[in-house]
Amino acid sequence: MPPLIDRETCEGCGRCLFECGVYVLALDDDDKACLVRKGCVDCFLCEMACPTGAIRMVIGRELAGVGGKASGRRY
Prior knowledge:
The chain is α+β, with helices and mostly antiparallel strands. It has one domain: Alpha-Beta Plaits, CATH 3.30.70.20. Helix content is 19%, strand content 16%. It is built from 3 helices and 4 strands; from the N terminus they run βαββαβα. It has helices spanning 15-19, 45-49, 68-71; strands at residues 3-5, 25-27, 33-35, 55-57. The strands form 2 sheets. A two-stranded antiparallel ribbon has the order 1-4. Strands 2-3 form a two-stranded antiparallel ribbon. The longest helix is centred in the first third of the chain and has 5 residues, at 15-19. The radius of gyration is 12 Å and the shape is globular.
């Protein structure tokens, strides 16, 4: 699953961008982290790098019955 980003908590520091090895994150016009393309490899590095906890990976039971990883993606 790609990360869920809480735009209200995100401070736009960019740490998640530097940690993402597949370059799926960017800062939008409001200087908030956002997904810009598919390709997240679920490494959790962006979540661990975020100092405010604005990024969270959704896994397992949190998918609430969604069938498989691909069908639960949001872009």
